[in-house]
Amino acid sequence: MKLGLVLTVFTADPAKPMTSAARAAATGFDAVFASDHLFPPGAPDRPSLEPYTLLAAIGAANPGLGVGVLVTRAGFRPVGMLAKQAAALDQVSGGRAVLGLGVGDANGRAEHAALGLDYPPFPERLALLEETVLALRALFAGRAWQGGRRIPALAGPLLPPGSPPVWVGGTKDAAIGVAARAADGWNAWGLGADAFVARAGELAGLATGAGRDPAEVPPTWAGIMLVGRDANELATLEAERAGKGLGMDIWRGTADDLRRLRDRVEGVGATWLIAVAAGPADRSELLAATLRA
Q1: Please, what is the Cα angle at 54 between 101 and 216, to 5 degrees?
Q2: Alpha-carbon torsion (223, 227, 231, 233), positive or negative
Q3: Which run of H or E residues covers position 22?
Q4: How many Å apart are CA 10 and CA 246, to the nearest integer?
Q5: What are the CA-CA distances from residue 290 to residues 16, 38, 65, 229, 274 (Å)?
Q6: What is the CB-side half-sphere exposure of residue 219 using CA atoms within 13 A?
Q7: Which of 122, 161, 162, 164 is disulfide-compatible with 97, CB 3.0–4.6 A?
Q8: What domains sit in the chain, N to C, each tagged with a CATH number?
Q9: Nearest 5°: phi and psi at 288?
Q10: Strand residues in 126-204 grouped as ranges (E)
Q11: Residue 151 CA to chain centroid, in angstroms?
């Protein structure tokens, strides 16, 4: 199973995530990931780096390190331009890019409004997500997109070519259904081990029902992780986090708990574990050392 690290993009200084990416490469992570936001959710007066530009720079500076976007909302970027950006990112990173797509939540409305973009009701966004996945996969495979109800025909080609896997992110039934029918993978954010195992089983069943081999659309796990070397250190870190008023609805555990999580999600076919490393600055190194031992 591959190991990914989520970088912060909520800064005006690209040196910060680029330094974190270099450390991730040196400590054994397979890839780094970034979110796609105009500004941090609920904070339009704060900066957010553009992920495709940032990840292209990281990929060029760190040969062998994968890069991925988790996630771009369907409708946030024109599909043809998104295809070009993602293919170029895949080419720059030596074929190691991942493109995650999502349907968006309540926070997305303000970002779309700031850019003059529509933000239709959930069922319409969901249908747009599925058609976006299908259009992108066609273009990445070197085929024209013949056009659909929401996305017009796109002839391509994408040159230089790129073919990053397209994941669908989301834990709702509807998002899992889109992943099962149309995508190259499914990403679940912040689920506990039991919930992830159950949802992965549902994904496999839906993929089979859609006439696909479940191995064509593997599950992947992502979330914020607070890891302590042992129970005493974990308790200290939890108290510090609570004292700062930070949310506690995240994955928390010891190094041994982390290994058990890895084994459980890998046991149902998960191909990636992707973490936001909460806590002290050395937590990403602890994550890698624990999971690579």
Answers
A1: 30
A2: negative
A3: helix 15-27
A4: 16
A5: 24, 34, 19, 9, 14
A6: 32
A7: 164
A8: 2-292 (3.20.20.30)
A9: -65, -45
A10: 166-169, 185-189
A11: 23
**Three-state DSSP state, 168:** strand
Residue whose tokens read 């330094």: 19
The maximal CA–CA distance of the chain, rounded, in angstroms, is 59
What is the length of the chain?
293
- Rounded distance between C-alpha atoms, residue 201 and residue 214, angstroms: 10
Residue 271, token pair as written in the block: 């191909």
H/E stretch holding 68 reads: strand 66-73
Tokens of 270: 């998960």
Q: What would the two tokens of residue 195 be?
A: 């919930």
Tell me if 186 sits within 8 A of 167, measured CB to CB.
Answer: yes
- pTM higher than 0.90, yes or no? yes
Q: What is the pLDDT of residue 37?
A: 97
Q: Provide the Cα torsion 51, 33, 76, 203; round to 10°.
A: 170
Distances (CA, A) of 107 to 40, 43, 67: 9, 10, 24
Q: Which of 224, 226, 218, 219 is nearest to 257 (CA)?
A: 226
Beta partners for 252? 226
Q: What integer pLDDT is reported at residue 248 of this predicted model?
A: 96
26: Cβ–Cβ under 8 A, 6 or more apart, which residues?
none
**Which mean pLDDT values do the consecutive 10-residue runs of the chain (293 residues) have?**
97 98 97 98 96 98 98 97 98 98 95 96 97 98 96 96 97 97 98 97 98 98 98 98 96 98 97 97 96 86
Question: Taking phi first (over 0 means left), then psi (-120 to 50 degrees means alpha), and beta for anything else, what does residue 158 get?
Answer: beta
Can you say whether the dihedral through the CA atoms of 51, 175, 1, 266 is positive or negative?
positive
